[in-house]
Amino acid sequence: xxxxxxxxxxxxxxVDFSExxxxxxxxxxxxxxxxxxxxxxxKTFQLSGLQERPRYLLEATRLLHxxxxxxxxxx
Length: 75
Description:
By secondary structure, this protein is α/β, with parallel strands linked by helices. It contains three helices and three strands. 11% of the residues are buried.
């Protein structure tokens, strides 16, 4: 994800979680690092299709509010 964000043609990155039933703390760390990089580069990082468990983990860790969530994953 970081390589994609750093590419000149990338202005926005959306990660589709529609088929991701579980995220652990390592996954959260990757998401936070990617969000930090996107903000530093002046780019948009979004999440879409959050399943119940990943959403719960983001809410429980009080991280969900940091991310922009979109209802559909643009192709």
